[in-house]
Amino acid sequence: MKPKLMGKAPVRKLAFQHPKFLIIAALAGLVIGLTANGLNYDKQIRKTATNRPDSIASVAAFGKVYKVLKSPRCMNCHPAGNIPLQGDDSHLHTMSPIRGKDGKGVYAMKCANCHQATNSPGVGTPPGNPNWALPPEDMKMVFQGKSARELALQIMDYKRNGHKNKAQLIAHARDTLVKAGWNMGDGRKPPPIAYKEFVAAWDEWINKGGYAPGK
Length: 215
Prior knowledge:
This protein is mainly α. The chain has helices spanning 19-36, 53-69, 72-75, 111-114, 148-155, 166-172, 176-179, 195-207; strands spanning 85-86, 91-92, 105-106, 109-110. The chain has a two-stranded antiparallel sheet. Strands 3-4 form a two-stranded antiparallel ribbon. A hairpin with a 2-residue loop joins strand 3 (105-106) and strand 4 (109-110). The N and C termini lie far apart (83 Å).
């Protein structure tokens, strides 16, 4: 006769029941959940115009947005280099201020030294805003030299747009610094369309899919 075993034999856990596996699965689920909630625009930024009505309307709306973003009032603070641009011809800033880590200048040459909370009186004097600055060093958001497609893809890319989701992008158009583009003081040409028209086009572009032009 076989001897009887005392007590119960140990139960072996299956691989998917192992604590390490469960932790890895939980982390993977978190990443998937964040992506599903719109915090990653990898799928969005691949969108290119098709024959769908929303796609066509979205791209048409971005055509208006692009004209504004490429105007000196926007592009001068979104340069390819680390020195802001200046004037209606978008020449390098005559004072040669440097972007700096936070976009507000370096050492004693800070943007706020000349750009006050409001516009300075007079023709061609420094425009002002409490938040006046370039985008920060780690998220430069370059407009200069970008095609319509490149700029649309960049804005809709969570990793390159300042970590903004759809709702935050919609809100950004209402930011006081964006509005300042239409109130830059005497002697400067405003953007090519009115502010309300820009906001309407911005909203339509994003709400109908944030599609990028094909070229």
